[in-house]
Design a protein that fits this description.
Helix content: 25-40%
Structural class: alpha+beta
Number of domains: 2
Radius of gyration: 19 Å
Largest sheet: 9 strands, mixed
Number of strands: 13
Bound molecules: (R)-mevalonate
CATH architecture of the largest domain: 2-Layer Sandwich
CATH topology of the largest domain: Ribosomal Protein S5, domain 2
Shape: globular
Order of helices and strands: EEEEHEHHHEEEEHHHHEEHEE
């Protein structure tokens, strides 16, 4: 049996804007998806018969991306992430599935994380009507703090380039690693799930429609870009107070873009008094918010009181790995 784990991700700055080439900063979180695979007499997934039509994401990875033609497989997926909640669960699934498959098919060959991230990106693009940045898959594959942008961002280390033909034209991204300061042990990311799942594809397409019908809203994208640069600079300097302020500002822009929700706003407001900063994270329209805090217990309590479900992650987590 082969087994792999891939982490989820949390976007600190730049969601939605990154689809248009602006920078985003994302961090791999502790929680993620475990996939185990073994050869078996029939196709089984989580104890049930595996049918292509019922598992399009897995089928796409197996047949289109890995061109799997081998024996039937028994697949087990265990997720520690809230589903469809902005934490990159589908990217983590692609990466964990890809890593496990790679080990099964080519046990001698070293796992190529960049190839895995690219495979995952193409699966995300297929699921999001051709509009997907490589943020989720790259962060889950590489771990740590990832910067994704059309342009090279100063102070980051280049890892790979990605491109995609979207309905709005061809997009190119540079994927780089940002170094976090050494002393981050007393800082935590507290994720708060609203309990409402949302479709990333729909949220991304709503934003595309908004920008077509209200071109002035492009200013919000530019504001998010400036906030992201500011946040990243503060992160590199270890000025977490300023990182938090930038997170608060980013939330306001995303709210004006129409991708927040009442429950997200409620959780963000409830956690602010005990956090350095708080914002929605990921595609929005439900899903999760994130707070950066030195007091994870108090913030978790606030999330529960406001009707959400908390999950705490340390700031530095590794990427996909065989386990
Ligand atoms: C989803 O985690 C983040 C979005 O920016 C979409 C994407 O980057 O593909 C909303």
């Amino acid at each position: 049996m082969v087994r792999a784990f891939a982490p989820g991700k949390c976007i600190l700055f730049g969601e939605h804007a990154v689809v248009y080439g602006h920078p985003a900063v994302a961090i791999a979180i502790e929680q993620g998806v475990n996939v185990s695979i073994e050869k078996f007499e029939e196709w089984v997934i989580n104890g049930k018969k595996f049918e292509r039509s019922r598992h399009p994401h897995i089928s796409h990875i197996l047949y289109d991306l890995f061109e799997y033609k081998g024996a039937p497989l028994k697949i087990k997926i265990e997720s520690g992430l809230f589903p469809a909640a902005g934490l990159g669960s589908s990217a983590a699934l692609s990466n964990a599935m890809g890593a496990a498959l790679h080990k099964l098919i080519k046990p001698q060959e070293k796992l190529d994380l960049v190839k895995l991230a690219k495979i995952g990106h193409s699966a995300e693009a297929a699921a999001q009507e051709g509009r997907a940045s490589p943020t989720d898959t790259a962060t889950s594959a590489l771990g740590g703090c990832i910067v994704v942008s059309e342009k090279k961002v100063n102070g980051t280390k280049h890892v790979f380039d990605a491109e995609l033909m979207t309905p709005e034209g061809k997009r190119n991204w540079i994927i780089s690693k940002a170094k976090l300061p050494e002393k981050v042990e007393d800082l935590w990311l507290i994720l708060g799930f609203t309990g409402e799942s949302s479709s990333t594809g729909k949220m991304v397409s709503d934003v595309a429609n908004l920008l077509t019908h209200e071109p002035d809203k492009v200013d919000l994208m530019n504001n998010i870009k400036e906030i992201t640069y500011k946040g990243l600079k503060s992160l590199a300097l270890g000025d977490f107070g300023a990182v938090g302020i930038a997170m608060n500002e980013c939330h306001e822009q995303l709210r004006d873009l129409g991708v927040s929700s009442n429950s997200l706003d409620r959780l963000v407001e409830a956690t602010k008094p005990y956090s350095l900063g708080a914002k929605m994270t990921g595609a929005g329209g439900g899903g999760c918010m994130v707070a950066l805090s030195r007091n994870p217990q108090r913030v978790s309590e606030q999330i529960e009181i406001a009707g959400g479900t908390p999950m705490v992650s340390k700031l530095v987590s590794e990427g996909v790995r065989l386990v």
